[in-house]
Design brief:
single chain; alpha/beta; 9 strands; binds ligand C2E; binds magnesium ion
Length: 286
């Protein structure tokens, strides 16, 4: 047929390739502008973490949202990976840190006593000027390092690329909590856990979403909880969507739970209201 006679390089110019390429370019251009203007297109939403040991809400995760005028809603899974590849992640993280510290100050001022977790990429950790920047920003805001935590995706941490472990050690020494995000999806060997200076494993939601129905997910989750505790780490499950799942996690000694069953991620004002409304909620035996 006709296609077989085309020179090989022509394959790259398929309509799909064009569409994908154009979208990536638009994301880069539009995101850069939005960050530069501190545009209302960008926001952070907060999702609580339920502490199962104390049955209280003591932590929340900041998640970025972007609804572009031209592109519509773009999910962070998409624009964060484009930003990482395009060398734009530093500007993204800078925006996130500023906003999250402002919001944390707002929370503290309103007697909402939670530690706020920010997602970082390994590229951020390798940027040696980030930690001093964070330190001076929290000092300026009158906050302590115990009020912030950082989550780094496991696949970024399986090898000690360019000394990321020793950089992470500096975050720990400064008093920040560190978690390995999406745990269970990124490793081929567990030996890296010995040398990682982290406090917490966060079980990937792919093992948790169907926990109440799926036997092999139950085995995996139980195993990760024991693994974490054997390494003296706290463990949190993300993607908890049902009460039966939450009950199982509680029964197995999981330290924290996060997911739509407890709350979806919401804007900071709504989070404060939710926190006040749910101070005395008994999540397990309802
Ligand atoms: P993540 O850090 O692992 O965040 C968990 C994701 O699961 C979030 O998706 C959250 O909204 C979603 N989720 C939470 N509970 C449930 C649940 O019960 N069911 C289901 N189906 N999903 C749930 P989101 O907000 O789309 O973020 C996706 C990823 O994008 C994040 O994964 C994180 O890796 C990245 N990301 C988000 N915000 C930032 C940011 O400010 N900086 C960086 N570097 N990455 C970010
Ligand atoms: Mg996270
Ligand atoms: Mg995750
Ligand atoms: Mg993730």
């Amino acid at each position: 047929d006709h296609a077989r006679h085309l020179p090989e390089h022509r394959v790259r110019y398929s309509p799909d390739f064009d569409a994908e390429y154009t979208r990536r370019i638009s994301i880069i251009t539009e995101l850069k502008q939005a960050l530069h203007r501190d545009s209302p297109e960008l926001s952070l939403v907060y999702q609580p973490k339920l502490c199962l040991d104390s049955s209280s809400i003591s932590h929340a995760e900041a998640l970025m949202r972007w609804t572009s005028k031209t592109l519509g809603f773009v999910g962070p899974d998409e624009f964060i990976s484009v930003a990482e590849q395009a060398g734009l992640i530093g500007a993204v993280t800078d925006w996130v840190i500023k906003r999250a510290i402002n919001d944390t100050k707002t929370l503290v001022d309103n007697n909402v006593d939670v530690c706020v977790a920010i997602n970082l990429s390994a590229k951020d950790i390798l940027n040696k000027s980030l930690l001093p920047q964070i330190k001076s920003r929290i000092a300026e805001a009158g906050l302590s390092p115990t009020q912030l935590a950082f989550e780094i995706t496991e696949s970024d941490l399986v090898s000690d690329a360019q000394g990321v472990y020793s950089e992470l050690g500096l975050y720990r020494e400064a008093g920040f909590t560190l978690a390995i995000d999406d745990f269970g999806t990124g490793y081929s060997s567990l030996s890296y856990l010995k040398s990682l200076p982290v406090n917490e494993l966060k079980i990937d939601k792919s093992f948790v979403l169907n926990l109440d129905k799926n036997q092999s997910d139950q085995q995996i989750v139980k195993t990760i909880i024991d693994l974490a505790h054997n390494f003296d780490l706290k463990v949190i499950a993300e993607g908890v969507e049902t009460l039966p799942s939450l009950s199982l996690l509680n029964q197995w000694g999981c330290n924290y739970a996060q997911g739509y069953f407890i709350s979806r991620p919401v804007p900071v004002e709504q989070f404060m209201q939710w926190y006040k409304d749910n101070k005395n909620t008994d999540w397990i035996s309802q």
